Amino acid sequence: MSLWAFDNSLTRVLAGFYQPWQAATPTAPKVVMFNDALAARLGLPGREAGEDVLAGWLSGRDPVPGSEPVALTYAGHQFGTFNPQMGDGRALLLGEVIAPDGLRFDLQFKGSGATPYSRGADGKCTLAAALREYVMSEAMAALGVPSTRSLAVVATGEGIWRETPHPAAVLTRVAASHLRVGTFEWAAAHKGREAVEQLTDYALERHFPERLHEANRPLALLNAVCEVQARLVAKWMALGFVHGVMNTDNVAISGETIDYGPCAFLDGYSQGQVFSSIDRGGRYAFGQQPLVCRWNLYRLASALIEAIAEVDQADTEAARVMLEQWPERYEAHWLREMRAKLGLFEERAGDLALAQDLFAALEGQQADFTQLFRAISGTLSAGYVPLEEHLTDRDVLREWYARWQARLAEEPRDPAARKAAMDAVNPLHIPRNHLVDAALAQAEAGDLAPFLMLLDVVSRPFDFREGLERYAGGAPDGSPNHVTYCGT
Ligand code: AMP
Ligand code: MG
Q1: Which atom of ligand 1 is nearest to the CA of 259?
Q2: Residue 95 zone, left/alpha/beta (φ > 0; ψ -120 to 50; rest)
C-alpha cells in the first residue's frame, strides 16, 4: 500500500486544463521545515520516513508515489488587464490526497522550476519567499482564516539570482483546490460554454456538493463563491490583512486565501495602506479589498453567464442582482466579525454605524491595528486611559468610547468574561513585518532559530505568554514604511 493516498480527480476529469510536467532536479535537497501536525492531519508520511527520503520527495528529486505532476492552465485579470493565457509558472500540482477524515486536498510545489507557463522566468523560489509563505499561511490558519497551508520547505542546494544571489527552495503547500476565478475565465475565453459547464460541475462536486441539486448549477456556483469570498475578505478586514495581489488568478473558488506573495498585516491603521512594490496605483490597498473582491466576482459572473443563460435566460437577472447586492452580503459578514471584536453578543440596529465610526475616527491616527483592539478590551477594566497611548490625538475616541459603553450597557456581561471573549478573536500576535523580515534574513544567513520562534509565536496568536512581549510590539519608531515584493 502506498504511503500517499493520492486520488487525482482533476487530471481524470479536466483533460485540457493542465499540462503534465516534471519538477527540476535539485542539486542537494535538505529539509528546512516540515509540518508534522499537518502531515498527521492529512495522513501523510512524517519524519519516520527519514529526512533524506522526505527531502527527495518534497524537492522533486524523487517522484512522490502516486503523484501525477501537472502545471495548471488558467487566465487572469492582472491589475485590471486581462491576460488570456497564464498557468503555473513556478508551481506544480502533485495531485490530490485523501485525508483520514475523507477530505480531499491538493498538494502543490512552489519553486520547482520552469514550466510551459514560465514566460522565460526560472520557475524557482528563494528560501526566504518559501519561508515567508510558510509563516504567513500558518499564521492565517491559526487566526481562523480559510487559507492554504504549508507542509514543507526543502532547500534545493542551489543559488538563484534575484538582484543578489539567494538560496533556493521548494515549498509544498496544501489547498482545498487550486481552482481559481482565472480557471473559469480561461475556460470561457478558449473552450466555450460546455467546458465552463464541465468545470462548474467539478467545482461544485468538490467544494459545494450541497448545491449540486440546484436547478441552475452555474448560478449556484456563483452564489457559493460570492458567499465564501465575502466571508474571507471580511476576515481579512477584521484582522488588518492586506493580500497585495488580488488578481483573478489569485482568487480561489474554495474561498481560501491563496498566493502569499506581497501580503502583509497592517501596522498603523490606514484604509489606503499598500505594501506591495508593484501596486503603485493602490488598487489592492487595505480599504479597497471588498471593492476589488466584488470586481473579481463580476469577472467570474462574466465567465459563467453563457452557461447560466443556457439553463434559463431569466437567471442572468438573478446573477446581476446577486452581484448588485453583494456589498450587503459582505457587510453582514464584516459586521459579524466586528461585533465579536467589540464584545457585542446581541444584534442592534446601530451596530454597523458604531463599527464604521470607530474606523472613521481612527483614520490618520497611525494606531497599531492589532494592539488597538487589545487596548479596547483593556478599557473594560481600566477605562479610556489604555487607549490614549495608541492615538496621536489622545481624545479622538472619547465620543466613540462613550457610545460603545452605552451600547455595552444594553447587554450587561461580566467585564472579565467579555474581555476574554474579545481577546479570543482579537489577536495579540500577528506576523509583524519587521520581525518577519529579520527572521527571513537570519534564515538565509543560516540561522533558522528566530524563524522557528516567530512561527511558534504566531501559531498561538491569541495567547499571552510570559517573555514574548517584544513579539506583540509594533514596528520600531523610525522604521521605514514596509515594502513587500512579489516574493519569487
Ligand atoms: P502571482 O501574481 O505571484 O500569482 O504570479 C503571476 C504569474 O507569474 C503566475 O502565473 C506565476 O506562475 C508566474 N510567475 C511568478 N514568478 C515566477 C517565476 N519566478 N518563474 C516563473 N513564473 C513565475
Ligand atoms: Mg498566482
Answers
A1: 4
A2: left
- Sign of the torsion angle spanned by Cα atoms 82, 234, 351, 386: negative
In whole angstroms, give the CA distance from residue 126 to residue 142: 24
The type of residue at 290 is: P
pTM for this model (two decimals): 0.97
Other CB atoms within a 10 A radius of the CB of residue 331 amount to: 17
Helix runs in 33-126, H state only: 36-42, 51-57
478 pLDDT more than 80: no
Task: Give tens-digit pLDDT for 38-67.
Answer: 999 999 999 999 999 999 999 999 999 999
Distance (Å, whole) CA 399 – CA 407 = 13
Residues with C-beta atoms within 5 A of ion ligand 2? 250, 259
241, 263 Cβ separation under 8 angstroms: yes
In this predicted structure, the answer to whether residue 1 has a pLDDT above a threshold of 70 is: no
DSSP class per residue in 153-173: EEEEEEEEEESEEEEEEEEEE
Domain ranges within the chain, ordered by starting residue: 9-175, 181-335
Ligand 1: does its nearest atom lie under 6 Å from the Cβ of 90? yes
What is the 252 CA–ligand 2 centroid distance (Å)?
10
Looking up cell 482579537 gives: 426
Render 365-406 in DSSP notation, one character per residue.
S--BHHHHHHHHHHHHHH-SHHHHTT-SSTTTTHHHHHHHHH
Are 335 and 351 spatial neighbours (Cβ–Cβ below 8 Å)?
A: yes
282 in contact with ligand 1, CB cutoff 6 A? no
